[in-house]
């Protein structure tokens, strides 16, 4: 039984999805891929289904009606992956901002003892390509802010390139994960740490998308800014079982 599944949420990613799938499915390790498509009007799902004919046992797709948020897409995928008994469950963007070759390094970090491996832009300096300095500074200081509020020792708190061991996602009550944008990535790391799981950062180089449209918005940043405070306050009144 293959042990690794890569979850990729998509919305209008026709320019990227075929290249991404061909790359991931050609890696030395036998990665499976689960696409969560939120009704992309550009035909992303149709491209995936065409490629699926060549990889019927390795490529899967779950289609949802309309944009429902990044966090809900990952929660949907996590539940699917846990149900299907994958040992290593990955988050990855569809736009090549995450290098598929790094999947092997994230998995190895979990094999060697991490419960969650985070592809980190900031653990060894600032490793971001093609972002304007204003966005680099916003992202970097967002992580500084999160560390200050929550007390967690993670340099890249908003990172969305991760590998979870299945036991982490089985332990966390996924129905209680609240946020859908940047704050979702923060909440998952914070909740894993509060449960006593070992979170390790693996240095990566993040390259901003060259084709397609970014899904970032001021609303996502606002959710993260306010959500971190709410999350910290709520955690004071919540008991976390050990992982």
Automatic annotation (TrEMBL):
GO terms for biological process: glycolipid biosynthetic process. Keywords: Glycosyltransferase, Transferase. GO terms for cellular component: membrane. InterPro entries: DPM1-like, Glyco_trans_2-like, Nucleotide-diphossugar_trans. GO terms for molecular function: dolichyl-phosphate beta-D-mannosyltransferase activity. Residues 6-171 form the Glycosyltransferase 2-like domain. Gene3D superfamilies: Spore Coat Polysaccharide Biosynthesis Protein SpsA, Chain A (3.90.550.10). Signal peptide: none annotated. It comes from the Bacteria. Pfam families: Glycos_transf_2 (PF00535). Belongs to the glycosyltransferase 2 family. This is Glycosyl transferase family 2. It comes from Mucilaginibacter paludis DSM 18603.
């Amino acid at each position: 039984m293959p042990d690794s599944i890569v979850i990729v949420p998509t919305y209008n990613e026709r320019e990227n999805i075929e290249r991404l799938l061909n790359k991931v499915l050609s890696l030395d390790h036998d990665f499976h891929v689960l696409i969560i498509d939120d009704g992309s009007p550009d035909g992303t799902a149709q491209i995936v289904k065409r490629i699926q004919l060549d990889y019927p046992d390795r490529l899967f797709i779950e289609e949802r009606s309309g944009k429902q948020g990044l966090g809900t897409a990952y929660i949907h995928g996590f539940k699917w992956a846990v149900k299907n008994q994958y040992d290593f469950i990955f988050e990855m963007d569809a736009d090549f901002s995450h290098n598929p070759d790094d999947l092997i390094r994230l998995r190895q970090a979990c094999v060697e003892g991490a419960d969650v491996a985070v592809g980190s832009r900031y653990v060894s300096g600032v490793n971001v390509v093609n972002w304007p300095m204003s966005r680099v500074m916003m992202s970097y200081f967002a992580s500084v802010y999160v560390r200050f509020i929550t007390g967690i020792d993670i340099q890249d708190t908003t990172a969305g390139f991760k590998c979870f061991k299945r036991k982490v996602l089985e332990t966390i009550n996924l129905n209680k994960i609240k946020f859908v944008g940047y704050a979702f990535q923060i909440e998952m790391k914070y909740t894993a740490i509060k449960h006593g799981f070992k979170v390790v950062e693996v240095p990566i180089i993040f390259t901003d998308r060259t084709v397609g449209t970014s899904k970032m918005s001021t609303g996502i940043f606002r959710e993260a800014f306010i959500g971190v405070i709410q999350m910290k306050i709520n955690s004071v009144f919540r008991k976390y079982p050990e992982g």
